[in-house]
């Protein structure tokens, strides 16, 4: 199953922890910073929603790239 299929399946299940991990992975794998920040933002939103431990690192990434204060 590719990453997109995994994301869709996690959305269908409502698995927020999996969504954090998958969007975070997408942010790391994508080739340009704008797309990386888009995926990181999605991961960050779900991380905040489920109090995921990656929230702090995602926030730092977004701040570093001027997407968050």
Summarize the structure.
This protein has 69 residues and is mostly helical. It has helices spanning 3-13, 16-29, 33-49, 55-64. 75% of the residues lie in helices and 0% in strands.
If you had to describe this structure to a student in words, what would you say it looks like?
- With 69 residues, the chain is mainly alpha-helical.
- It is 75% helix and 0% strand.
- It has four helices and no strands.
- It is flat.
- The mean pLDDT is 96.
* Terminus-to-terminus distance: 35 Å
> Could you state the order of secondary-structure elements as H and E?
HHHH
* Tally of helical runs: 4
Estimate what percentage of residues fall within beta strands: under 5%
Helix content: over 70%
Low-confidence residue ranges: none
Based on CA atoms alone, the radius of gyration comes out at 11 Å
Number of strands: 0
What's the story with the biggest beta sheet?
none
Structural class of the helices, strands and pairings?
A: mainly alpha
- What is the average of the pLDDT values? 96
Shape: flat
Features:
69 residues; mainly alpha; 75% helix
Topology of this protein?
Elements: H1 3-13, H2 16-29, H3 33-49, H4 55-64
């Amino acid at each position: 199953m590719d990453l997109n299929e995994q994301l869709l399946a996690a959305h269908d299940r409502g698995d927020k922890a999996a969504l954090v991990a998958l969007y975070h992975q997408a942010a790391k794998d994508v080739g340009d910073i704008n797309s990386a920040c888009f995926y990181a933002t999605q991961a960050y939103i779900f991380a905040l929603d489920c109090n995921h431990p990656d929230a702090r690192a995602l926030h730092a990434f977004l701040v570093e790239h001027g997407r968050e204060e």
